[in-house]
Each structure stands twice: as structure tokens, then as C-alpha cells.
Amino acid sequence: MRNILITGANRGIGFEFARQSIGRGDRVFAASRNLEKAIELQHLASANPKRMTLIKMDVTNEDDIENAYEIVNESVEGLDILINNAGIIYRGETPENFSAEILIESFKTNAIGPMMVAQRFLPLLEKGESPKIINITSQLGSIERKTFGGHYSYSSSKAALNMLVRTLAFDIRSKGIIVVVVHPGWVRTDMGGENAPIRTVDSVQGMLNLIDRLSIENTGSFLTWEGNVLPW
Ligand SMILES: NC(=O)c1ccc[n+]([C@@H]2O[C@H](COP(=O)([O-])OP(=O)(O)OC[C@H]3O[C@@H](n4cnc5c(N)ncnc54)[C@H](OP(=O)(O)O)[C@@H]3O)[C@@H](O)[C@H]2O)c1
Fold first, then answer.
1. Which terminus in the chain has less CB density within 10 A, N or C?
2. 161: CA distance to ligand 1 center in Å?
3. How many CB atoms lie within 10 A of CB 194?
4. How many domains does the chain have?
């Protein structure tokens, strides 16, 4: 049984991570910024009261991160897997209309939030069993693959996430903590939309299999949900 913390666990990829992790017998800390609205998550938690704890956490709120740390720290000796999944996207950005406000909000949620969560949970990850920090990024954050316009805030915030956690990966490599960024594919969620070719269940199953296979040699890498290497 592994101890797993998932951010943005109330819907989409995050919820599926929680559902499949419970199915695999893990101990799940499922974080969501609005627990009242997280109806499916509440049902999953009431069906698995001993192995699932719901935590209110907006990843842009440092008090929430601290509170989440205290809850997890009181419940388990160590954290084995942190899945930094929460993310936002703004559509329709153009050279004329993109705004500092949207750019800042995107960086706070997609890059700074995951980094602050990782920082706070490091002491618990150090006590985990083959600990891993899995950051859900996007291939839209690949600078090499940026051969089209649009998505200013999303792409640049995911590129910032990639650089932040790659740096972290090498700083904490000696502690045995594996850090990777993973592109989940184009997935049928609220964010991915109904035309996305990949089912959430398949993307998450692929990522959980990938997580099982990761070793310290993989730390600092940019991978797809199927385990292929992506260019930065
Ligand atoms: N779907 C795709 O095709 C695709 C492709 C590449 C990468 N990704 C990445 O995969 C991750 C999950 O995406 P998804 O498709 O599952 O998206 P989604 O269905 O839109 O779900 C996003 C989740 O993030 C949460 N969230 C947003 N801002 C938050 C904050 N400040 N604090 C805490 N939670 C927050 C949302 O909570 P609320 O319900 O409260 O809004 C929701 O639970 C994201 O990082 C996304 O960038 C997705």
C-alpha cells in the first residue's frame, strides 16, 4: 500500500488518479479546492473511509498547503507519491488580448503552486518508500514543439513548471526522490474537451504503470503518459 497525495482530485485526470489508486489498494489523500462541490470524490471517500482522506487545498494558497501537510503528517509516517495534477487553461489568447492577470494566475496555479506543494511535502517524501513527485505538465509546455501560436499563459506556465521541477529533481536526487514531468496525452476531460482521443481511464492507467517503472535514472525527465521522452 502506497501513500499518495493528489491535487485537483475532484474531476478529470485527478479524480481518475484517486479512483484507480483506491482500486489498487493505496492510501489516498485527495485534495480539492472546493470539497462541497466534489460530489463524486465524497462518494469515493465514504465508500473507502479507511484509505481515503479528503483535504481542502487550493494550490495557490499557502495556508491550505500548510494545513494539508499537517493532515497528511498526522496520518502517515511518510508520503510515497505526490501527484501535482491541478491545472488551469485559458483559451482564445491572442497577441492583442493576452493579459498580465491571466498570465500571473496561470503561473500561480500551473507552476508556482506545484513547486510550493512539493517544497512543503519534502520532509514527508524523504520518509516515503521510493518516493516520487509526478508533475502533470503538457506537451504545450515544450519549447521545441512550439511551432504554432496561441496558449500564451498555459504554454509558458507549463514550461516554467518543467524548469522548476527539473531543477528540483537534481537538487534532491541524492535523497532518492524521483521527480518527473508527465504529459498525460490529449485526454477527454473538461479541459481536453469531448474531441480528445484518449479516455481518462487509459491515460491514468498508463501514467500509474509508468510511475511504477520509474527509477532514479529517470529523475528530471519529460515523459509522455506512455513513457516516451519528450523534447524540452
Ligand atoms: N486534458 C488534457 O488533454 C490535458 C493535456 C495536457 C495536460 N493536462 C494537464 O492535466 C492536469 C489535469 O487536467 P484535466 O484535463 O483533468 O483538467 P480539468 O478536468 O479541467 O480539471 C482540472 C482540475 O484542477 C483543479 N484546479 C484548478 N485550479 C486549482 C487550484 N488553484 N487549486 C486546486 N485545484 C485546482 C480543478 O479544480 P476545480 O474543479 O475546483 O476547478 C480540477 O480538479 C492539468 O495539469 C492539465 O494542465 C491535461
1. N
2. 14
3. 7
4. 1
Residue nearest atom 17 in ligand 1 by C-alpha distance: 191
Residue 194 sits in a domain whose CATH number is 3.40.50.720
H-only helix segments in 108-228 = 113-126, 152-171, 200-213
Residue 58: inside a domain? yes
Task: Please provide the average confidence, as pLDDT, over all residues in the chain.
Answer: 98
Ligand 1 centre to CA of 12 (Å) is 7
Is 30:53 a contact under the CB 8 Å cutoff?
Answer: yes
Residue 232 lies in a domain: no
Containing domain of residue 43, as a range?
A: 3-224
**Residue 181 one-letter amino acid:** V
State which amino acid sits at residue 196. A
Q: Answer whether residue 230 is part of any domain.
A: no
Q: What is the pTM of this model?
A: 0.98
Q: What is the mean pLDDT of residues 185-208?
A: 98
